[in-house]
Amino acid sequence: MKLYSTNNKALRVSFQEAVFNALPQDKGLYMPEVIPQLDPFFIQNIQQYSLQEIALTVASALIGDDIPKADLKKIVDDAINFDAPVKFLNAETAVLELFHGPSYAFKDFGARFMSRVMGYFSQKGDQLLDVLVATSGDTGGAVALGFLGVEGTRVTILYPKGKVSKVQEEQLTTNGQNIRALEVDGTFDDCQALVKEAFNDTELNSVLRLTSANSINISRLIPQTFYYFWAYAQLKAQGISEVVFTVPSGNFGNIGAGLLAYKMGLPVTHFVAGTNVNDTVPRFLRSGSYEPKPSVQTLANAMDVGNPSNWVRIQDMFDGDLEHLRGMISSYTYDDVATEQAMKELYEKYNYIACPHTAIAYLASEAYRRDTPGTYASVFLSTAHPCKFPDAIDEAVFAKVTLPKGAVDLSNKPKLATDLKVSYEDFKAYLLASR
Ligand SMILES: *Cc1c(COP(=O)(O)O)cnc(C)c1O
């Protein structure tokens, strides 16, 4: 697999290079030189395969010789060791549940695969790989649990004190081993700024082997294609072959992976993006002019993104052709009042408890159905387990949430976190002290 930068199509880097240095110097994003086409016979018979078999076929088509198939199989089987079931709410609407991994969010797909790929490429005797990550909640948990125990790696997570939920904090702070949590007396933006400064610090980079676990990493994008194929396989097993996917979107990495799957030959009829009031992409699709804004805080806080970093990849897949984009992607925006209403409706109508992000996807899928009636199945993606968002969910409804067993176990473990002020000097000293 060779990759170019969306800002320089003449550039070529290896998969390994793109994994460890996720951002090209020119500030574009890495994209595969060619998007491989899957064998139509495989797609026609996809219902015969397991999630892991599908994942191996898709990953191997993309990555090619950079990881021999037998090694890739180990990585896939180890990373994707949980299901992503499609559950029907009624005859035409289903939810694809992506929260059955260890951190109860879809980010487990990306983080677990990335951690194992990084571990694979880190040879014995290589310097310890220091992964730095700032989190507003879900990313940190997926990265922590994804890298836990992966040899040759160490993860340092910065999270804003008092601004993540109980389950999220426990996932960050109860690991030990190669995972360290820094509880920052500041905001998520402060955490992000500290991490960014570390990556730009030449002195620090000369002594530590730093890498980011950012969502723009190509090794997080690849595994997110798997579940689109797997959802399609589950539908096909029920005789359904026409599907519209609705994706709750923030940084647009998840839907970007869906579009990549489509480009590889998955017969998807249409994609719908649901956003909260951070609506840069919906505005773009309407007006044709891309105008990022500072992010606004909402109930669906994992989607509070004013300038979606993965959008350039989507533009790239469609050669920047606005009409073509509009033909394949619709979008809808919802505020917190509508989100709360949707969570209530899902519970009352279907006895289904959803996190706020999932509720936005539900609303967008219903809106698209109204605007574009048809015989397709609407599948909206559930990106997190509701137990991660107690403050966003009505108290009486939240009381009915069944905590996964793992979440119960977590509350009995001691909290391991180091306090950090918003001071780059202190952060750097911390990193250097543990060399
Ligand atoms: C990260 C996240 C999203 C947004 O996904 P993107 O790939 O950034 O669009 C949606 N829902 C949940 C629960 C998340 O954690």
UniProtKB/TrEMBL annotation:
A Pfam family assignment: PALP
Domain Tryptophan synthase beta chain-like PALP: 96-375
Keyword Nucleotidyltransferase attributed: no
Pathway where this protein functions: Amino-acid biosynthesis; L-threonine biosynthesis; L-threonine from L-aspartate: step 5/5
Key words of the record: Amino-acid biosynthesis, Lyase, Pyridoxal phosphate, Threonine biosynthesis
Protein EC: 4.2.3.1
Gene Ontology molecular function terms on file: threonine synthase activity
Catalytically driven reaction(s): O-phospho-L-homoserine + H2O = L-threonine + phosphate
UniProt KW Amino-acid biosynthesis keyword: yes
Cofactor: pyridoxal 5'-phosphate
Family matches, as InterPro entries: Ser/Thr_deHydtase_PyrdxlP-BS (IPR000634), Thr_synth_N (IPR029144), Thr_synth_N_sf (IPR037158), Thr_synthase-like (IPR004450), Threonine_Synthase (IPR051166), TrpB-like_PALP (IPR001926), TrpB-like_PALP_sf (IPR036052)
Occurrences of domain Threonine synthase N-terminal (ranges): 4-79
PANTHER family named in the record: THREONINE SYNTHASE FAMILY MEMBER, THREONINE SYNTHASE-LIKE 2
Assigned protein family: Belongs to the threonine synthase family.
Protein name, as recorded: Threonine synthase
Source organism per UniProt: Sphingobacterium tabacisoli
